[in-house]
Amino acid sequence: MYSAIGLQSGIALLYLQLYRVTKNQSHLQRSLDYVKRILRNLNGRRVTFLCGDAGPLAVGAVVYHKLKNDSESKECVAKLLQLQRTVISMDSELPDELLYGRAGYLYALLYLNTEIGPDTVPQSVIKEVIDAIIESGKNFSKEERKTDRCPLLYQWHRKQYVGAAHGVAGIYYMLMQPIANVDHETLTELVKPSIDYVRHKKFRSGNYPSSLSNETDRLTFKEDKYLKDAIDCSDVIWQRGLLRKGYGICHGTAGNGYSFLSLYNLTQDKKYLYRACKFAEWCLEYGAHGCRIPDRPYSLFEGMAGAIHFLSDISVPETSQFPAFELRPQKKENKRGYPQREFAAGQCPASLASESSQLQLATRGEEITNLESSFIRGAFTRYTQQVGSQFM
Asked: Which SMART domains match (predicted)?
């Protein structure tokens, strides 16, 4: 969501998130205000959730659905499905990655089936997009003569990126979503060995290269080695994840904090909740750490909106999700089979501090206590004052 339209899409998504957390109808209405403006200015040049028309259309469909306006919701879905022909064409120059490619369009389809209902987008449509992603990955792997080692390989701008935004991690992650219904054979024979190929590129520091061409240092499957790698990565983030690039979720501390929320939901280990809360504590001191000012200081991915999104998820960690990437679980059970723990609306997990001495959370004398009072009201009020006149 980096373009002018995308920036407003991110703000609409933030208000939708705040409605989910608080059930305050005014947030939903505010999201609708942004959606209406965005939908009047779609350009049709890009097809993904984050950087194209798919995002505004998907968010619009969800907002209208929650407002019981089924006709407008269905119209948004129909327009989104019209983009599919470009996505599945192997003759187009469309990449496969999340920001600008097929995986980003796939996310939009899965998002609708998660937020509205499993039959909102027909499974046949989803399968055609998945088949195009698989075919593209197999073809490029064959070109690179890596079929045996990495059967699904992708590039963006002639580089084989590793990360979620432009790289294979984001593509593999979308293919592994349960709601995508990718067949078991594809997962085990194509996706899994490709993930293992990337795993073996890990540096001794625990970090990973930005691309597979930089090799100077070297769950769906329910195997402990994948969880161990995730835990190792989280330890690196804990050590190095307070960034001078800012507070946002793309290049900043809030985005790194989401890794701890994901691990907490997977393991129920309160260490990761503690780490997420400490990163949230850092974000609460917005502007006090000498971070650089992002190009779009109020946007969802670069700016304050992303930090607020993360802080709102801290209040309800059991249902947290990295925006435009993670999908909400369909069952109240985590992937490891542990029972999920519920929090009352507005109750901050900092109340867990009484259960463990490791969870004593203080923010310069003020404990993170409540969504409405301590952590978001001031930040959100400041945000709406600054951004409202600019975009409304």
From this structure: LANC_like
What's the start-to-end Cα distance of the chain, in Å? Answer: 17
Span 19-48, pLDDT tens digits: 998 899 999 999 999 999 989 988 877 899
Range of the domain at 124: 92-223
Alpha-carbon separation of residue 259 from 107, 162, 199, 297, 317 (angstroms) = 19, 17, 17, 22, 12
Which residues carry a binding-site annotation for Zn(2+)?
A: 250-251
Q: Which two tokens stand for residue 54?
A: 């798919």
Nearest to 291 by CA among 317, 254, 328: 254
Concatenated DSSP letters for 119-188? TSS-HHHHHHHHHHHHHHHHHHHHHTT-TTT-SS---BTTB-B-STTTSHHHHHHHHT-GGG---HHHII
DSSP state letter for 340: P
Angstrom distance (rounded) from CA 288 to CA 274:
22
Rg of the chain over all Cα atoms, to the nearest angstrom: 20
Same domain, 101 and 189: yes
Among residues 104, 65, 111, 68, which one has the least CA distance to residue 84?
104
Question: Would you say 61 and 76 are in contact if contact means Cβ atoms under 8 Å apart?
Answer: yes
Same domain, 173 and 97: yes
Structure tokens at 167: 């790289």
Name the token pair of 26.
């005014």
**Annotation: binding site:** 250-251
SS3 call for 370: strand
What's the chain's length in residues? 392
Question: What is the number of structural domains in the chain?
Answer: 2
C-beta of residue 301 within 8 angstroms of C-beta of residue 10:
yes
| 244 and 308 part of one domain | yes
- DSSP string across 77-106: HHHHHTTHHHHH-TTS----STTTSHHHHH
Q: For 250-265, write each residue's pLDDT tens digit.
A: 878 889 999 999 999 9
For residue 105, tell me if it sits in a domain: yes
Q: Which residues lie closer than 8 Å to 205 by C-beta, 6 or more apart?
A: 217, 236
Q: Which of 160, 194, 223 is the last residue of a domain?
A: 223
